[in-house]
User: Fold this.
Amino acid sequence: MKKFIHVKLLLKITQEYVNSHFTFAFSLLFSLLFLAYSYNYTTHSWRPIVLLFFAIYALTTLYIGWLNLRIKRDLTKFSEIQAGTRRFGYPLLLTLLSGNIFATSFAFVILSNKKTAEYTFAVYAFITQIFIFGIGAFNLFKPYVTNLFLLAMGIFLILACFYAVMIVLCAKYVTTTYAPKWMFIPSIILLLATVTGNLFATLLGYSLLQKARQVNPSAIEKWQTIWHKILRNTMAVFGLFFIIFMFSLSVTSNWTFEYDFAIENNYSALLQAPSLEYPLGTDNFGRDLFSRIVFGAQISLIVGFFSTIIPALVGGTLGALSGYYGKTTDNLIMRSLDILYAIPGILLAIAIIAAFGANTVNLIIALSVGAIPTYARTMRASVMQLANFEFVESARALGASDTAIIFKHIVPNSLAPMIVKATLTIGGAVISTSSLSFLGLGIEPHIPEWGNILKVGSTYLETHSYVAIFPGLCIMLLVLSFNFFGDGLRDALDPKSN
Assistant:
């Protein structure tokens, strides 16, 4: 009985076993989606390329299912995964060519039995870079893209090779508390690679720099603990990957995509079906849907981030002042914010845009104003809890000013719930952006933005459904990613979690 309980607990906590189930489920789901989309009900014909992807994903699902049984057998018999089983992860690396991020990440997980945070960062930095290279490679079939296209693609390929080398080095030399001093040089290169928007490289460079310098062991341990908790959450990791991937694609799109394809009308290619030249087809003005969705990610992320950061700063400041001073100040600030909170956020945004016009800046302001009260309440609750702690009394006794106490001692210790709230609500900001654009009250109609693209696609749902399906999927995946990562971050920053 004791052995059975031990085996059951081992299966539950083993990362490879848990990831294999997630990978199997998602590969099965996507294979079914490819099967459903492989038949064109309008022309009553099959789509050969989609059928090919269905076959690849179906075979991958069967392979993962078999490997899952082998992992379970090893854990049951030997309490660890055998080296022979781990070698079966190498064929799964080929799934990167089909865009199966779930199977590829599982392959890297099972290949190494020493999985530090740096190893995971290196893996996802490599996968992100390969995806960026693959997305840009579709433009090879266009007659012209940009002057920087070949140079940028070469840089992306070099960076992908560099990240692959870092995967090997992290697996071989980096532990949970130590990195060789010579890792200082590649960590600087990784930090410089931030210009491509690949934030996994930034996280990897910063973490290696901390371990190589060994300046503050307690800070290193705290950093590692937080990331260990986040990386244990498979859905949070996938959410973080999609967010960073979309951010990196937004940063690099100007180097590998031509903006004219997204905004210029091409009446000789109206409503073209997906092809090599137009991977996602064209809309009713002949504009390349692929380019429009890529450039639309820039606007969705910019509006989403700024309409979250601005109310967090303004509301956080008001909430900190309200919670620290209390009484008259608290009543004055919070009652004023209650009036603002009584107005529905989307209605307030519509009123502001209707009054000042529809553009990106006004949209950010409109979405920010309505979100200020929620951030103020969150910060106020944290500050009121911390205001009576001993470290605050000590700072006051040493003659520190109220401003120094609030912004140097109390606010830094209240940031965790604010960060979690911002991560969880930024998805709502993306939805609001797309919703207002869909209604014609957000970004100007000619500018590529996911809500604008979806509005056009809604007219052709029966005849050319892809015009609405692709931007809708992007909105859904980005919002889900922020929610998944927000949940993982909340669990990691919760002091009660183990």
In short: Confidence is low (pLDDT under 50) at residues 1-12. The first helix runs from residue 2 to 13.
